[in-house]
Design a protein that fits this description.
Largest sheet: none
Structural class: mainly alpha
Radius of gyration: 41 Å
Helix content: 40-55%
Distance between the termini: 95 Å
């Protein structure tokens, strides 16, 4: 029988492979993204003008709804076609809508140019 010599185990050399720097993943610092803050569209002044415009439109609508005749069988021309219902009320409604448009487009003085 042949005797086998016990040879010491050869340790494998660990080969270190180098990867070019361009292909290595670089450790980037983790940056938490902050949610984008939407700019404030309307300020207290805008809402005040909107309330004024809405009140004027409401006043014009109320003036347009007319008075009522004492006798439903009698047509009173002066009540139906009065200056208040035919002229003043529509002017107030249009003026209120113009104020609403102004309130929407008005930029506040505090906000930066956006």
């Amino acid at each position: 029988m042949a005797e086998f010599k016990k040879q010491p185990l050869q340790q494998k050399k660990q080969s270190v492979t180098t990867v070019p720097a361009a292909t290595q993943k670089q450790q980037m610092p983790v940056v938490k993204k902050q949610p984008a803050v939407a700019p404030v569209l309307f300020t207290k002044e805008n809402y005040t003008w909107m309330m004024i415009g809405g009140a004027i439109v409401l006043l014009g609508m109320l003036l347009m709804t007319g008075g009522k005749s004492k006798d439903p069988n009698v047509f009173d021309y002066n009540v139906v076609y009065s200056f208040t219902r035919i002229t003043l009320a529509p002017i107030l409604i249009i003026a209120g809508l113009m104020i609403e448009i102004y309130a929407i487009f008005k930029k506040s003085k505090e906000s930066p140019n956006v």
